[in-house]
Specification:
By secondary structure, the protein is α/β, with parallel strands linked by helices. Helices cover about 40% and strands about 15% of the residues. It is built from 10 helices and 8 strands. The strands form 2 sheets. A 6-stranded mixed sheet has the order 3-2-1-4-5-8, sandwiched between helices. Helix 3 runs antiparallel to helix 5, helix 5 runs antiparallel to helix 10 and helix 6 packs antiparallel against helix 7. The protein is elongated, with a radius of gyration of 33 Å. The N and C termini lie far apart (about 75 Å).
Length: about 350
């Protein structure tokens, strides 16, 4: 009896020798599948099945080659790579689908700081009172104050580094913590753009002081000099609770004003506009700085401690899930869209034509 080693070495010149070698090759790959990750194992299985399907398809086409490709029985030369491309494409699609299936998004994304990094806390206190819906903000004075706040805070978030941990409080009368100690900036963007925060807030008179005190109480136990307090409002507060002393955790405070300083609009029997005097006084009480961001953004110098020079938002690498989505989209378009059209119009030089009609009956 012949050994498998003899068959694999090609000592036999029989028709079944090649099949034995192919079988051994596939068995060696299959035996390694249990030790692979799920997406890679699925890609290998899809590749093997696609190779088998392409081999069966090639056998069938060989019998009817003259019907498929004309009298020559041959397709154009570039078509020779199509079976291999289809196998690799199906394998890549299987890998992408299984990667998306097995991927577990991390709330901290890739921005969680390393063990040796110093975490910076950015605490955002955002005004969602009715006066923020008035349209006299932005360079052209046509945006609502809330829209301008979204732009300004979004710009700040886009420039922060991996070491930043976000806490967001929104207020009208009673402040409500929306998120605490989140490293994923997408959460903050979702609050700014899509979350209907107004429904969670208690209506009544706007109290800026109560919101600031709630933020100071929230960060009281944070590490010393680790908190940047950023308050974005128009300053239109009918009631102002006395501000408590600044806790040691606060390193820097920024009071951002939105809305036109000169031109206001009437709301609740009073003229509502940005109040720079009140905001400047609040900034002084917090040992911070007041910035009018109605027509400009927060300068880099004010948030330089939240940014890192070696981090650029545009230079970040794709996550595994994003890479899988990209691979899935590209391969699906090529496999199901481009390739069939290319085979239809450029796969063969032969073009079948209808037979010429015979002469009319006599």
């Amino acid at each position: 009896m012949l050994s498998l080693a003899q068959i694999a070495a090609g000592d036999l010149e029989t028709r079944g020798c090649a099949w034995c070698r192919i079988l051994l090759f596939h068995m060696s790959i299959i035996s390694a599948i249990p030790y692979m990750e799920l997406p890679l194992a699925g890609a290998v299985v899809a590749l093997l099945l696609a190779l088998l399907a392409e081999w069966l398809q090639a056998r069938r086409i060989r019998r009817v080659a003259s019907l498929a490709f004309g009298p020559s029985g041959k397709a154009r030369r570039w078509v020779r790579i199509v079976p291999w491309f289809r196998c690799l494409a199906l394998s890549g699609i299987a890998w992408a689908l299984l990667t998306l299936l097995a991927d577990k998004p991390d709330a901290a994304d890739s921005r969680q700081p390393t063990a040796g990094g110093q975490t910076e806390h950015l605490v955002l206190v955002l005004d969602y009172s009715p006066s923020m819906t008035l349209s006299n903000a932005g360079p052209a004075a046509v945006q609502t104050r809330k829209e301008r706040m979204r732009q300004v805070i979004g710009s700040v978030v886009d420039r922060t580094g991996k070491q930043v941990c976000y806490t967001v409080l929104c207020f009208w009368t009673r402040p409500v913590p929306i998120v605490q100690k989140a490293f994923d900036p997408a959460i903050v963007r979702n609050i700014l753009n899509d979350l209907p925060v107004e429904y969670a807030l208690e209506p009544g008179k706007t109290d800026l002081g109560k919101a600031v005190n709630a933020a100071l109480e929230l960060v009281r136990d944070y590490p010393r000099k680790s908190v940047t307090l950023m308050i974005c409002t128009d300053g239109d507060s009918t009631e102002t609770e006395e501000i408590r002393p600044l806790p040691p955790a606060v390193k820097r405070a920024l009071v951002l004003g939105v809305g036109d300083i000169q031109r206001g609009e009437v709301m609740d029997d009073h003229l509502s506009r940005q109040d720079p005097v009140a905001l400047e006084a609040l900034a002084r009480h917090l040992n911070g700085r007041y910035l009018d961001v109605n027509t400009s953004h927060v300068p880099n110098g004010e948030i330089g401690h939240l940014c890192r020079a070696d981090e650029r938002p545009m230079a970040r690498t794709l996550s595994r899930g994003e890479a899988a989505l990209l691979v899935l989209a590209v391969l699906t378009i090529l496999y199901a869209g481009v390739l069939p059209l290319a085979l239809e119009f450029g796969g063969s030089d032969w073009r079948p034509r209808a037979a010429a009609p015979r002469g009319g009956a006599s």
